[in-house]
Protein backbone atom coordinates (compact mmCIF):
# COMPACT_ATOMS: atom_id res chain seq x y z
CA UNK A 1 0.00 0.00 0.00
CA UNK A 2 1.02 3.58 -0.59
CA UNK A 3 2.29 5.44 2.52
CA UNK A 4 -0.56 6.97 4.52
CA UNK A 5 -3.26 4.78 2.97
CA UNK A 6 -5.50 3.14 5.58
CA UNK A 7 -7.46 -0.04 5.05
CA UNK A 8 -10.42 -1.05 7.17
CA UNK A 9 -11.59 -4.62 6.69
CA UNK A 10 -14.30 -6.89 8.04
CA UNK A 11 -14.20 -10.66 7.46
CA UNK A 12 -17.06 -13.03 8.21
CA UNK A 13 -17.04 -16.82 8.19
CA UNK A 14 -20.44 -18.47 7.95
CA UNK A 15 -21.67 -22.04 8.08
CA UNK A 16 -21.19 -24.09 4.90
CA UNK A 17 -17.94 -22.29 4.07
CA UNK A 18 -19.24 -18.87 3.03
CA UNK A 19 -16.66 -16.15 3.65
CA UNK A 20 -17.38 -12.45 3.13
CA UNK A 21 -14.62 -9.83 3.07
CA UNK A 22 -15.43 -6.13 2.86
CA UNK A 23 -12.73 -3.41 2.71
CA UNK A 24 -12.60 0.37 2.61
CA UNK A 25 -9.65 2.66 1.94
CA UNK A 26 -8.96 6.37 2.31
CA UNK A 27 -7.78 6.28 -1.32
CA UNK A 28 -9.27 5.19 -4.66
CA UNK A 29 -7.07 2.06 -4.59
CA UNK A 30 -4.47 0.68 -2.16
CA UNK A 31 -1.72 1.85 -4.52
CA UNK A 32 -3.05 5.42 -4.93
CA UNK A 33 -2.31 8.56 -2.97
CA UNK A 34 -4.58 8.95 0.02
CA UNK A 35 -7.56 11.21 -0.50
CA UNK A 36 -8.59 11.74 3.11
CA UNK A 37 -7.70 11.05 6.71
CA UNK A 38 -9.89 7.95 6.91
CA UNK A 39 -12.17 5.88 4.67
CA UNK A 40 -15.53 7.49 3.86
CA UNK A 41 -17.48 4.50 5.17
CA UNK A 42 -17.49 3.75 8.91
CA UNK A 43 -16.54 0.46 10.55
CA UNK A 44 -20.15 0.07 11.67
CA UNK A 45 -21.29 0.39 8.03
CA UNK A 46 -18.67 -2.15 6.91
CA UNK A 47 -19.87 -4.58 9.60
CA UNK A 48 -23.49 -4.10 8.51
CA UNK A 49 -22.57 -4.88 4.88
CA UNK A 50 -20.46 -7.93 5.77
CA UNK A 51 -23.06 -9.43 8.14
CA UNK A 52 -26.13 -8.70 6.00
CA UNK A 53 -28.17 -11.90 5.53
CA UNK A 54 -28.43 -11.20 1.80
CA UNK A 55 -25.01 -12.86 1.40
CA UNK A 56 -26.61 -16.16 2.42
CA UNK A 57 -28.88 -16.00 -0.64
CA UNK A 58 -26.12 -14.94 -3.05
CA UNK A 59 -24.94 -18.48 -3.70
Kindly list the characteristics that best describe this protein.
59 residues; alpha+beta
Explain the overall architecture.
The chain is an alpha+beta fold. The chain has 2 helices and 2 strands, in the order E-E-H-H. The chain has helices spanning 43-51, 54-57, and strands at 7-13, 19-25. The N and C termini lie far apart (31 Å).
Overall morphology: elongated
Please work out how many helical segments DSSP would assign. 2
What order do the strands of the largest sheet run in, or round the barrel if closed?
Answer: 1-2
Mean pLDDT, nearest integer?
Answer: 90
Helix content: 10-25%
**Unreliable stretches, pLDDT < 50, 5 or more residues?**
none
Estimated radius of gyration: 13 Å
- Amino-to-carboxy terminus distance: 31 Å
What is the N-to-C succession of helices and strands? EEHH
Strand residue content: 15-25%
* Structural category: alpha+beta
Number of strands: 2
**Main beta-sheet strand count, sense and barrel state:** 2 strands, antiparallel
Task: Describe the secondary-structure layout.
Blueprint lengths: L6 E7 L5 E7 L17 H9 L2 H4 L2
Antiparallel strand pairs: 1-2
Summarize the structure.
The protein has 59 residues and is an alpha+beta fold. Helices cover 22% and strands 24% of the residues.
Amino acid sequence: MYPGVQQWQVDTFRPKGLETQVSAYNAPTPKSLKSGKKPLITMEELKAIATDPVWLTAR
